[in-house]
Amino acid sequence: MNHKVAFSFADGKTLFFPVQPNEILLDAALRNGINIPLDCREGVCGTCQGRCESGDYSQDYVDEEALSNQDLQQRKMLTCQTRVKSDAAFYFDFASSLCSASAPEQLSGKVTEVRQVSASTAILHLDLDLGTTGLLDFLPGQYARLLIPGTQSRRSYSFANRPSDSNQLQFLIRLLPDGVMSNYIRERCQVGDEIALEAPLGAFYLRHVAKPLILVAGGTGLSALLGMLDELAERGCAQPVHLYYGVRDAADLCERTRIAAYAERIPGFRYTEVVSDPSPQWAGKRGYIAEHFDTSELRDAPIDMYVCGPPPMVESIKSWLQTQALETVHLYYEKFTESNI
Ligand code: FES
């Protein structure tokens, strides 16, 4: 007998659909026209996560970087790995409209610029080939998966800008000592190269801004937040915005001129950078970002906090918020699992 499942979303909408016994929840949702944002389908990226509010379920595989033990205790689950054992209800912290969007598009773009912007980061600019009328409509904070030219390897990168009529895209790329994308960027990437990509992907995006914002970037997690800041600067923002940016070494900091310029365009913009393992010459803030949070700012009023960075950084901020009992902070986060090759 089928199980009856309810999916509720942050915009208050609830959708009901049947799930066959032992069926993967994601397959049932897609079959019923509910396009939950997804990427890996392997329990690794965490994109398809939700929280079970009632009912019994099991999960085939959950990578520890997608959901922590604490997440699992809170009944967070990955739709692509979940099988329901009874009627059940799940909550997703994004708007239902994200699920009615059509499947990601298969696109192609030309490299217009590639530039190293710090010791460990490059910025890649692409001009999408969508004809005269096409527009890639994505939400600031989402990402694209790029096919690395001359290989069969794909890597995911957050958009570092907002959507525009000119279909220009930017991505911050972390340069590894030896990685498929890093080697391409350092050794072969030329202006004019064609790069195939799939986009838009992901459920991390800037919501309607009705509260003060705290944006927290770890390393190239800055990319998604630059897209959000571009959007805030372009649309106007009446709320204060505080960007925290953490890196390992000061030489890893990038796009500081661009960040400084947001102060001209977003009234109430504040910026704090933190270096976890600096040289003795570094005169700025040291350690981990959570150690430098302005707690008076966090306790003042309800806050929306957006965090994008490596899983340990995201987990440390989640734990810190919990120990501080800051229940007025609504946390949205994206853990990017960096490929080491
Ligand atoms: S799509 Fe990646 S964890 Fe489900």
Q: What labels would you give this structure?
A:
Ubiquitin-like (UB roll), Rossmann fold, 8 helices, 6-stranded antiparallel β-sheet, alpha/beta, single chain, 6-stranded parallel β-sheet, 19 strands, 3 domains, binds FE2/S2 (inorganic) cluster, 341 residues, Elongation Factor Tu (Ef-tu), domain 3, 20% helix
Outline the structure in words:
It is a single chain. Helices cover 20% and strands 34% of the residues. It has 341 residues and is of the alpha/beta class. It folds into three domains: 3-99, Ubiquitin-like (UB roll), CATH 3.10.20.30; 102-201, Beta Barrel (Elongation Factor Tu (Ef-tu), domain 3); 213-335, Rossmann fold (3-Layer(aba) Sandwich). It binds FE2/S2 (inorganic) cluster (FES). The site of FE2/S2 (inorganic) cluster has 13 residues, from loops. FE2/S2 (inorganic) cluster (FES) binds next to loops.
Topology of helices and strands:
Layout: E1 3-9, E2 14-19, H1 25-31, E3 49-54, E4 57-59, H2 69-73, E5 76-78, E6 82-84, E7 88-92, H3 97-100, E8 105-118, E9 121-128, E10 143-147, E11 154-158, E12 168-174, H4 180-188, E13 194-201, E14 213-218, H5 222-235, E15 241-247, H6 256-265, E16 269-275, E17 285-286, H7 295-300, E18 303-309, H8 311-323, E19 329-335
Parallel strand pairs: 1-7, 14-15, 14-18, 15-16, 16-17, 18-19
Antiparallel strand pairs: 1-2, 3-5, 3-7, 4-6, 8-9, 8-13, 9-12, 10-11, 10-13
Bound molecules: FE2/S2 (inorganic) cluster.
FE2/S2 (inorganic) cluster binds next to loops.
Protein name: Anthranilate 1,2-dioxygenase electron transfer component AntC
InterPro entries: 2Fe-2S_ferredoxin-like_sf, 2Fe-2S_ferredoxin-type, 2Fe2S_fd_BS, BenC-like_FAD_NAD-bd, Beta-grasp_dom_sf, Cbr1-like_FAD-bd_dom, FAD-bd_FR_type, Flavoprot_Pyr_Nucl_cyt_Rdtase
Domain 2Fe-2S ferredoxin-type: 3-98
